[in-house]
Amino acid sequence: MLAHTAIIAVFLILLVTILSIYVSACRIRLRISMGDGGNKVMRRAIRTHANSLEHAIPFVLLLMFFELNGGTGREVLWLGGLFLGFRLMHVSGMLGGPFRLRQLGATGSLVLEVFVAFAILCRVFGCPIELAATSF
Q: What is the domain partition of the chain in residue ranges?
């Protein structure tokens, strides 16, 4: 059962849905029905939503495979919570917050994606080194 992955997936889907609503609100407020209309705010809203979706889907798949290959509920929730936190930092930086938040959010997300991918490979094929970080 993938109950822990499902919890993280729900929160990530809610984030993407909220960003979709924000895009729609920008379209209504700025009267832009298609594309970004050359408007910087609209372009930023669209890219924030798309980028969140581009990272959420692969991460949920990675988390699912991690949990299916013996990842504990605690590990899944820690990894997923960290990822969600990094995505929120990225969103904040994209939508006008400090650029440093955007950088930290993007970097943290990518590091976690690679970490979980390697953790899956280690669980499937065995790992030549002990990964203490995978035991929370």
A: 3-134
